[in-house]
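Forwarding the complex inputs:
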Amino acid sequence: MKKKSKLERREHTAGLLMISPSLIYFLVFFLLPIGVCLYAGFTNWNMLSPNRVFVGFRNFVELFNDEKFWKALVNTLYMLIPIPIYLTISLLFAYACHKNVPGEKVFRTIYYLPYISSIVALVLIWQWLFNSEFGLVNNFLSTFGIEGPNWLNDPVWTKRMIVIMISWKHIGFISIYYIAALNSIPKPCYEAAQIDGASPIQQFFRITIPLITPTTFFLVTMGIIGSLQTFVEPQLFAPDGGRGYGVATVIFYIWQKAFDSSQMGYACATAVVFGILIMLMTILQFRLSKKWVYGGE
Amino acid sequence: MKKKLLPIVLCVALLLSVFSLAGCQKADDNDVADGPTGDVSDNGGDDAGQDTPEPVNISFMGWGNDAEVATFQAMIDQYEERYGNVEVEYIVVPNTEFDTKLQAMIGAGEQPDAFYCGVDYLMKYASTDNLYDMTDYIADNDIFDPGNVWDCAINLYRYDGQNMQQGQVYAVPKDVSVFPIVYNKDLFAEAGVTPPTEDAPWDWNDYVAAAKKLTSGEGDSKIYGSGAYSLESAVWSNGADWLDETLTEVTVDDPAFVEALQWVADLRLVEGVAPTVAESDSLSDYDRFKQGKLAMVGSGTWSFADFWENCDFEWDVMNWPVSPNTGETAIWFGSAGLAVAATTEHPEEACNLVSFLAFNEEAQRTSYTTGMSFPLLKDMAQDEYMEMDKAPESKDVLFDILNDNARLATQSKTFNQEWFAEFNANVPAVFNGETTAEEFCTSIKDTLQELLDKSIELKAEYAGS
Amino acid sequence: MKPKIKSFTVLVVLILALGACTMIVPFAWMIVTSLKQ
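Prediction (whole assembly, three chains):
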């Protein structure tokens, strides 16, 4: 056994004390609930009754047999569509700002507005905008002779509308990341390319995009984790899950089972399964990162 | 070795301290909720025998639009005046979040002493022992006379462990709403249609004929004769139902059910007297009626205030047409109740509060004069309400419905409503003409049966406590 | 030396302005419709 000097010990203690708030926070608000959730997934916990019985894998078996769950899963994967959309548009917008287009600061402020607005207010506005008879969108389309679809009640179009809304909302926010990333590309890279005769477009695709892949990787990974958990928009636009359960996402399904049907144990089991799924996708992201991320692990 | 041990020990120590702190907090909360009277078992006895009652704090949770909240606040103030020692904390939660919040509070052991309880949820809460049994209190209290309240209303909140509408009473109705057909008298006069009367009721064919006469115009000036017809009324009038009497079997493939469903769909698809599903989605039948573009719509007594203010035409109510096959008619009626938590420490005060809010004459008067509901007290309904000089003129129709034709919705009698939600989520396909009633009912019956079986299983599991 | 205003820049600004409209239009329309009542 090594003899420890008093100083060493004091430093250790100091270090531990300094990280203890974060540690406690992590344990209490993350590890503990996850542990409880994992345990609860194996019971038939119902919020209202003190009975709580261990039921083994029953919840999980039921989950895999439930058609609604699979429908919700498909709908959830649909919610990944906004990611490439807003990443592309944000990048283009960030690039324009990076090139100091006139009015840049004003545009950035305006584009940022949707992200900071109350989601409930936004949904209310969108419900009116996309109303199939009186909404602005369909009226606008009809001036071109296009008959607008029933955005709010046809689940196919409701999903598309939600995708539009999410893309629209994220553009301003994501562009902040890209502006920072663009700023961090060293100017000499561009200068060297120019000297070698690269056109601006070539520069964009051969220098800019590859060098910002770390940021893109971060945004894609966080975007996937976040999009898979889409809940608020489906719940507000289609509180019953939409016709044929066509709008519900997995988190919506969990919420319904937990609070409408009071099957908290079952909901926890679903949450565990879905959490594992997200974790696997994230691990996959990291593995793949070596292939395309500049300086990736 | 020692190097690794110290951090582990510290972590465990931190964890333990966090847990014991959490434990302390909960105990403190309970102490505060107890109030100065402290010991739970003494309460009942103390209140009966004391001269100067000890101060009591109870919490009451409900939902409502601004008008309702204001009315309730006024009634709570009146209650506090009458029972000077009681202070009520009134918590307002939006309707859509109410059940979630209540369940979370129950799960945390912090449920309010008194709260709104929708009739759909009664079984759920009663069977899991969360509601206080009010039967004895109702029989013997000094706020109201149970004989003066509509039987069907109080019966709604009975549950005997197996079935609703019989057994002990677990909540008091805070209102009862009747759901007649409201019609536009001006449009009727223009089209030369005479409304039905008690002696000369309509049947479905009369209804369609009238609706056809009332439908006119094109595009923006289109007027529809009818709104979406209540499926419940059609199905029950035809002698069918979603479930059988024992509530264990799904009966939507019963030919009478299919016929009723198809008839309702055909009002839109074949007869063209009701707005299409897409049209209803963009402008609800209710709003269309208010704008004078729809002649007959099913609507509840809660909407009268809205009609008084926003309809610039004369309107009245009529009963639902009888089925030509049975000569009978039926319609659902709704109610929201007020319940007391089983674990409340002040049952007497809480029961007094809910009864006061539910049956107090002033409160009832305010409620019906502002067009919010139909009086719960029989004598008030039969005297004052009938004399009230506002639409609808045919108030006797409301009585008839309540006395003869009103039924508790089938889905409210089951432990959870998942099977009904599944039916409703998919039935628009019939109203759209995408599938026929027969195909739909046959194909969905098994899914509904599964969900129903599941809810019965759950009930057995949880009610076993 | 003042830089010339390139036509490409103008195009970009127009597109951005269009985008900004889509950001604001929902709010503006809401205000307008509620004022109409």
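Residues 181-332+414-463 of chain B form a domain with the D-Maltodextrin-Binding Protein; domain 2 fold (CATH 3.40.190.10).
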